[in-house]
Structure formats: structure tokens, C-alpha cells
Amino acid sequence: MKKVISQVVKQKIRNLSVHDLLEQSREFNVPLTKSQATEIVAFLKNSNLNPLDEKDRMKALKKLAQITDPKTAQKVNKIFQEMIKENGLSHWF
Fold first, then answer.
1. Is residue 92 a contact partner of residue 2, using CB atoms and an 8 Å limit?
2. Mean pLDDT, rounded, for 11-34
């Protein structure tokens, strides 16, 4: 089942648009410029990182900190952790 969830998450990441990312950033109060969103989407689409793997998530957050800033990356990580808890997926992460 974990493999299926991983594939679904990877597919969602590959289909993420700059517009969608900017909407999500506003919803979660994470300030992003269009340029930053474009760079993040390009990174995510070209990356083969496994979102269910802790090491891969940390690599993605480090890249996010390079594109934006460490404070934004920390905020995104907190939002991600909250989403995991809210959806009852803590045991997979």
C-alpha cells in the first residue's frame, strides 16, 4: 500500500503547476514569488525523490531553502507534517 501512496504523491507532484503552487502557498500563508514557484515546480518535476523517504524529503527541503529561504522551507515542512497528521498517514512517515 505504501508503494501505491508513493506513486500517487509522485504523480500529483509531476502534475503540479505554478498556478496551483501559488494558490497553495497563499492558502497556507507561505509567501512565494512566481519566479520561486516556477523554480520549485521545475525541481519537483525533474526530481526522482521519494516523498515517503525521510532523506529524500530533507533533500527537497534543502533545495526549497536554496530557492526561497530557510524560514520558508521550515514553514513548508511544518505544513507537510500537519497534513500527514490530519490525513492519518503518520505511520508511513
1. yes
2. 89
